[in-house]
Amino acid sequence: MKNIIKSGLTVFIIATIGTLLLAWVYSFTSPKIEEQKFLTIKNAIEEIFPNQTEFNEIPEYKNKVIENNINIITIYKVELQDGKEGFIIRATYSGYGGKVESLFGYQDQNCKGVYVLEHSETPGLGSLITSKDFTNQFINKNLKDPFIVKEDVQAITGATISSRAISNAIKIIGKFYLENIYGGNKWKKIYLKSSQKVYLKKIQF
After folding, report:
1. How far apart are CA 131 and CA 157, in angstroms?
2. Does residue 106 contact residue 86 with C-beta atoms inside 8 Å?
């Protein structure tokens, strides 16, 4: 009986120490991970909008679930050198291998580009959704296009589901953008309200 109690206490102590060590390591690594993610997002925005000068986060649209269970994590309003503006929508959606997280760029009625941040797609097949050969076809593509794989969207060989997942996401998020942000009074009202409260998170570089 004493041996059982002793063994149990030993396991408990080891587990407690292990948990504390993991928490201690996480306290150091978590800020680094977040910093790296921000730099990745910043570089991706610069890639989609090369002539950008700054971007502002719009807090009203945080963690909004829309059609097809797509989760909009956040939206950035991007200021451009020519005085115009674009928008970056960061969202997650379902791929073949699980959740995919991407940045989608929109300006006027066009998709300006897509950048995949994280995915679990099949290596060598679905993972090619990150390749320029695949994503470049969406640059300046009109949102009125059908975005149907093997029709107006060239699929990745052997990865039709992954190809369809990202093209559907561009179309559905694009529809949300057109209805809620592009040229709409709703966006103007939200922006004015946010500005009055100094509510926008401004990031300048």
Report:
1. 13
2. yes
Strand intervals (E) in the chain: 52-58, 64-66, 70-80, 85-94, 99-107, 110-118, 141-142, 201-204
Which residue type, as a one-letter code, is found at position 139?
Answer: I
Strand partners of residue 101: 92, 118
> What does the alpha-carbon distance between residue 171 and residue 142 come to, in Å, rounded to a whole number?
10
Q: Over the stretch 94-126, which tens digit does the pLDDT of each residue have? A: 999 999 999 999 999 999 999 999 999 999 999
Q: pLDDT tens across 35-60, in order?
A: 888 899 999 999 999 999 999 999 88
**According to the model, what pLDDT value does residue 35 have?**
83
Report long-range pairs for 132-140 (Cβ below 8 Å, ≥24 apart): 134/163, 138/111, 138/113, 138/114, 138/167, 138/170, 139/111, 139/112, 139/113, 140/110, 140/111, 140/112
Q: How far apart are CA 173 and CA 96, in angstroms?
A: 19
Place of tokens 């969406």: 138
Look at residue 117 in the predicted model and tell me its pLDDT: 97
Hunting for tokens 């992954």 — which residue is that?
162
Instruction: Read off the tokens for 104.
Output: 């989608």
pTM confidence score: 0.77
